[in-house]
Amino acid sequence: MRRLATIVAALAGMGAVACATAPAASAELRQFWVAATPAPTWNMAPNERDAIHNMPLSPSQTVFPTVVYRRYTKDWGHPIPNQPTGSSNQDLIPGPLLRARAGDRIYVHFKNLDTLYKRPHSMHFHGVHYKPSSDGAYVPGISGRDGNVKPGQTWTYKLTAGSDSVGVWPYHDHSPSMEDSIAGGMYGMLSILGKGQPRPDREFEVVFAPMGDFQTIDGRAFVGNTPVFTSVVGQTIQWDVMAMGSEHHTFHVHGHRWKSPFGTDVDTQTVGPAETFAIRWKEEDPGTWLYHCHVEAHMMAGMIGIYHVRPK
Amino acid sequence: MRRLATIVAALAGMGAVACATAPAASAELRQFWVAATPAPTWNMAPNERDAIHNMPLSPSQTVFPTVVYRRYTKDWGHPIPNQPTGSSNQDLIPGPLLRARAGDRIYVHFKNLDTLYKRPHSMHFHGVHYKPSSDGAYVPGISGRDGNVKPGQTWTYKLTAGSDSVGVWPYHDHSPSMEDSIAGGMYGMLSILGKGQPRPDREFEVVFAPMGDFQTIDGRAFVGNTPVFTSVVGQTIQWDVMAMGSEHHTFHVHGHRWKSPFGTDVDTQTVGPAETFAIRWKEEDPGTWLYHCHVEAHMMAGMIGIYHVRPK
Amino acid sequence: MRRLATIVAALAGMGAVACATAPAASAELRQFWVAATPAPTWNMAPNERDAIHNMPLSPSQTVFPTVVYRRYTKDWGHPIPNQPTGSSNQDLIPGPLLRARAGDRIYVHFKNLDTLYKRPHSMHFHGVHYKPSSDGAYVPGISGRDGNVKPGQTWTYKLTAGSDSVGVWPYHDHSPSMEDSIAGGMYGMLSILGKGQPRPDREFEVVFAPMGDFQTIDGRAFVGNTPVFTSVVGQTIQWDVMAMGSEHHTFHVHGHRWKSPFGTDVDTQTVGPAETFAIRWKEEDPGTWLYHCHVEAHMMAGMIGIYHVRPK
């Protein structure tokens, strides 16, 4: 009880916001309903502008009919936002942010509603404990239905968050269609807190991935289309950074530094395909800042966005 | 004596297997005889199958006549397996696994038996101490015979493992032919233990490198050709991971996590050309798992294999 | 006073050389005058030789008319060497090595003297604290003159080195011309010491970046053109390593090892675009050694140099 009180006090003191699921004092079962659903008019650049080269873009270049992960209410009743209320990015890419705490069991109920391409799909999770039947990867002659969920079918992935699962982790399609599906945005993140770890005030998801001829953040390209993340001086903010695809990236935020995983101060950090890291700091620097991939060709192809910090 | 007893007891307690060289209680001289020898029918995919795209492959696509490092008995008497008895990969690529302990001196006697291409060759070692005459790299106008061993010639590389040499390290051709030779598989690893460090029960070598149009692990492409690594629940296993060539990779094992070099939990880790890392865990998860490079284009071009864990 | 005496004694004991600015006992204001100036005959390979493939190179392949950062005396009176007296590389690429200590304020007075291409330029600094008006990055509709300094104009960037700024950091053009300007060598480094941290005896700057068809170190390609770094046994040496452009590299030095940022021993370390690291060791190994990028295609395209250690 004393421990619970401490945690609650800590959370209150940080002004935590936007918890879709209440922080758990003890291990619990968290259930999510997710479907593969068509996004036939996904537009990487709705403002029709390449703000780096100051050039127009037409929808014929930037609309990418695709299939995405989408969060649903219980038993796939109706779709709900992929990210929790108050999140900075309510879009369909990346897929639902699946939050849990060390010790929790997690059931992800998956349904393949791909009526656009009628492909098989699956979910393969990093960072958590599971049996081979929840692996979600297709291997000819070895794997079962978990790695090859056909249109109309369902599968429940049963996962456990260990003490070695704290942090952020990828999930993604690992079925026979994975090449096309990942290229189309079928990826998302698990965000797992330690038992007494306070939730940040703001949590920003940044997924670096190519899409067609562009280099995108969360499926969007160029300032004006990529997510605008916002915070207020004094808040604790967390960046959940991940890459998918075939290229290495370097995540950079202007005017800020953070502790790298190994304890040194950095402001640019490599992230390769399926690598992830969570960065936290207490915000002190008001202004409009850039965040971007520092691989120059990627930034020039759209991998750049705005982070806005309001004074207190 | 007390210290020796402790080490032996520790090793016995771990059920250590497959030590080609006995664990040393004190520093010793370890000698190896290695030759560059032809492998004129090396086949990257002996099963003639691309198991990712479920397509046939013909030997005309996958046979790659090459020259490799091969281990010999004393004074190059006769060839012996590159990897110690009981190893999971008895193939010719990578070259011999050279094991030592901190404090040891290591003599590697090298002979160029390249009758296939008649190229010069050499061995350049990472991680160990040596004088310039054992560097093995060719620099016009500077280097001696160590970096340019002609067909029929020999050279002895004299190395010392310091306390800063613990871990796994690359060796590779650094002669005038290095571009072709590394592309053909002329690389291998040193595996150096700390003075009292127990040897793992199982040691798996994973070298990510391109070969022709494919992306290979230990010179093989696609599940069914790449090494199948095996262990039993309860064993301590070690992955020796390395990359050679011009690309960065991300090493991933399904259903497992490990401590990164900086102490965080990961299941995907970047490895660039000539970088290496050794990962250890005590096995707890029975099943048939995938290990692969998570750079998607590499996995699709063959960089994927099977890891099988039997119940106790 | 006792603390100051300790620092001075430590520096004296290390035989520190080549301090352009005296070590500070307390925080100070450091001012630098830098200009963007033409280098119309920059030659990546003045010796007209590809020493890797042993082939001739002609100036038509290797001369690259460009614009660089150049250090000046106060109020841009006259140009002075980019690197401090005694440095191993007195060339114009990279730009001036800007040295400071944690706690210092730093003013960089920048003037655009680009009469060659008449492009806008800027300076964007990593690792230090500043307000948005000193960010130096151009964002359409948001940024001011700091990110878009036109020919003939000036701007003063006002920076502060915090305790989280210790290490080496990039600066580079982030104006509308950044693609061309970075490709032409408009980058350099900040080198910031902790408050009581002794300066190394030798400090070597290694910037990996493509230029035209070559892969360069400090704007030069191949042994004979890239910097020759020198030291004497017993000296403390520091490598300042950075990458610019769109590719990841692996920095390797023959015959030496160092502690990676996470405390393990390595001799090859990944550095991605805008990542930096400072490596220190006390020199013990006399000889002529290679340092190079271990990405094979990069080394073959010129990214390799000589490090010479004289006996004591």
Notable characteristics:
homotrimer, 312 residues, mainly beta, Immunoglobulin-like, 5-stranded mixed sheet, 4-stranded mixed sheet, globular
Give the SSE order of chain A as H and E letters.
Answer: HEEEHEEEEEEHEEEEEEEEEEEHE
CATH class of chain A: Mainly Beta
Distance between the termini of chain A: 34 Å
Largest interface, per-chain counts? A-B, 37 and 33 residues
Mean pLDDT of chain A: 90
Shape of chain A: globular
| Oligomeric assembly | homotrimer
Low-confidence stretches of chain A: 1-24
CATH superfamily of chain A: Cupredoxins -  blue copper proteins
From the coordinates shown, what is the CATH architecture of chain A? Sandwich
Number of DSSP helical runs of chain A? 4
Q: Looking across the biggest beta sheet of chain A, what order are the strands in? A: 13-21-20-15-18
CATH topology of chain A: Immunoglobulin-like
Please bin the fraction of helical residues of chain A: under 10%
- Sheet with the most strands, sense and barrel status of chain A: 5 strands, mixed
In the residues of chain A, how many domains can be counted? 1
**Rg of chain A computed from alpha carbons, rounded to a whole number of angstroms:** 19 Å
> How does the helix and strand content of chain A classify structurally?
mainly beta
Tell me the strand percentage band of chain A.
35-45%
